[in-house]
């Protein structure tokens, strides 16, 4: 095979692999319930769709400036200033899909051998991107006993002379945990004292039930070290539009922009106009979060009744991350649940070593599916 070591070493996205197996079983005639999906089951708000349509009709079907259309960069900066109390301006903003933003940040910062501190359990793509940049993943622990907040002592211990980047994700996929102001103060000290760069993935910012989202950008002295990543996929049910952004110190932007210029050129033009409209949306987000909250409460209560499962109530996101108590690896567990009960869940080990003996359930699906899915899970666990 002609492929580079970097690509051969990359693991395919396990979350996507499971979705594929589930759809194969479905085609064979089984009624598969997928609790593995990482996107809202809602459609993009219709006025957002219309804004994109109008922009296309008006001829906005071309390349845009690589950093994004000026009015969107301005509006994103305004959102962060007003809602998040982060003191930035349009020149700090680059419009790009959120996943691309993380990829650009990691590949622009990491030299071979540099250490990147990533959460464990944490989102599946972080370690693969770090490997791609030939960096070294150093996992720090999220503490299940503290609702999956960062184990700050563990994090302190993991910092070394080779540490280059600290990556945080709050609210967190897969745990649904959020970082507090106190946590962020410690993180600030670690980043500033060690001159790290902080990447803060805030993509689940809006899907929050308890507590509040605080961006580390609120600390004036941390901002010069921070790259914030956010987007519209989860907050506005816009996964297919491939639209998000990063916020970085202005002197970082020309370096980061080079990677964008030589890869995707710019974010999709019509999606940028859709995003402009999305930033005005309040009501549809509220409705979606109200529905997610209803489902979260249901899923949490029902899972709590199942013997051999221990579950933390997620404060945010549309995921729960229960621990199970019998001795098979989570990959095997997920396969058995899928093959015996036709319910797709994501094995915890996909999210790192500390994710083992857990599985992730997404409640971004209908109440009807959740009721049926959990009934089947109850049968599965009670038959062991
Ligand atoms: C934690 C996290 N960060 C980033 C992303 C990427 O978002 P997008 O699809 O908008 O690129 C995802 C998507 O699943 C995610 O879960």
Keywords, separated by commas or semicolons:
384 residues, binds pyridoxal-5'-phosphate, 8-stranded mixed sheet, globular, alpha/beta, 2 domains, Aspartate Aminotransferase, domain 2, 15% strand
What's the CATH first level of the largest domain?
Alpha Beta
The succession of helices and strands, N to C, reads HHEHHEHEHEEHEHEEEHHHEEEHEEEH
Structural class: alpha/beta
Largest sheet: 8 strands, mixed
Main-sheet strand order equals 2-9-8-7-6-3-4-5
- Globally, the shape reads globular
- As for the CATH topology of the largest domain, it is Aspartate Aminotransferase, domain 2
CATH-assigned homologous superfamily of the largest domain: Type I PLP-dependent aspartate aminotransferase-like (Major domain)
Q: What does this protein look like?
A:
By secondary structure, the chain is an alpha/beta fold. The chain folds into two domains: 5-43 and 283-382, Aspartate Aminotransferase, domain 1 (Alpha-Beta Complex); 60-278, Type I PLP-dependent aspartate aminotransferase-like (Major domain) (Aspartate Aminotransferase, domain 2), CATH 3.40.640. It has helices at 5-8, 14-27, 46-57, 70-82, 98-109, 125-132, 152-158, 181-194, 253-261, 269-278, 283-304, 330-341, 367-382; strands at residues 33-34, 93-95, 115-120, 136-143, 149-150, 163-169, 197-201, 226-231, 244-247, 309-310, 319-320, 323-324, 343-344, 346-347, 359-362. Strand 6, helix 8 (181-194) and strand 7 form a beta-alpha-beta unit. Helix 4 (70-82) runs parallel beside helix 10 (269-278) and helix 11 packs parallel to helix 13 (367-382). The longest helix has 22 residues, at 283-304. The protein is globular. The termini are far apart. It binds pyridoxal-5'-phosphate. Pyridoxal-5'-phosphate binds at residues 38, 97-99, 123, 169, 173, 201, 203, 231, 233, 239, 244.
């Amino acid at each position: 095979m002609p492929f580079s070591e970097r690509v051969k070493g990359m693991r395919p996205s396990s979350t996507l692999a499971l979705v594929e197996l589930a759809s194969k079983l479905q085609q064979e005639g089984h009624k598969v319930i997928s609790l593995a999906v990482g996107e809202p089951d809602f459609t993009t708000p219709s006025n957002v769709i219309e804004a994109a349509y109008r922009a296309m009709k008006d001829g906005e079907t071309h390349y845009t400036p690589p950093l994004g259309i000026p009015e969107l960069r301005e509006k994103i900066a305004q959102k962060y200033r007003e809602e998040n109390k982060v003191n930035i301006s349009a020149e700090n903003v680059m419009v790009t899909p959120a996943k691309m933003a993380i990829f650009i940040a990691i590949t622009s910062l990491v030299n071979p051998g540099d250490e990147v501190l990533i959460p464990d359990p944490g989102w599946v793509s972080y370690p693969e991107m770090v490997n791609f940049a030939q960096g070294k993943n150093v996992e720090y622990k999220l503490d299940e006993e503290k609702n999956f907040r960062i184990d700050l002592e563990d994090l302190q211990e993991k910092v070394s002379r080779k540490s280059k980047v600290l990556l945080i994700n709050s609210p967190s996929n897969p745990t649904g945990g959020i970082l507090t102001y106190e946590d962020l103060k410690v993180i600030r000290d670690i980043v500033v004292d060690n001159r790290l760069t902080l990447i803060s993935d805030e993509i689940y910012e809006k899907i929050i039930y308890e507590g509040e989202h605080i961006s580390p950008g609120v600390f004036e002295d941390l901002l010069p070290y921070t790259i914030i990543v956010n987007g519209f996929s989860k907050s506005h049910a816009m996964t297919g539009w491939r639209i998000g952004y990063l916020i970085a110190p202005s002197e970082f932007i020309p370096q980061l922009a080079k990677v964008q210029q030589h890869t995707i050129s710019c974010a999709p033009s019509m999606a940028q106009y859709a995003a402009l409209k999305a930033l005005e949306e309040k009501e549809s987000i509220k409705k979606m979060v109200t529905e997610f909250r209803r489902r979260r409460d249901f899923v949490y209560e029902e899972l709590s009744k199942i013997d051999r499962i221990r579950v933390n109530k997620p404060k945010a996101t549309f995921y729960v991350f229960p621990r199970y108590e019998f001795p098979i690896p989570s990959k095997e567990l997920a396969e058995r649940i899928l093959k015996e009960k036709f319910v797709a869940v994501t094995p915890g080990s996909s999210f790192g070593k500390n994710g083992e003996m857990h599985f992730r359930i997404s409640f971004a699906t209908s109440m009807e599916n959740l009721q049926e899915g959990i009934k089947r899970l109850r049968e599965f666990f009670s038959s062991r």
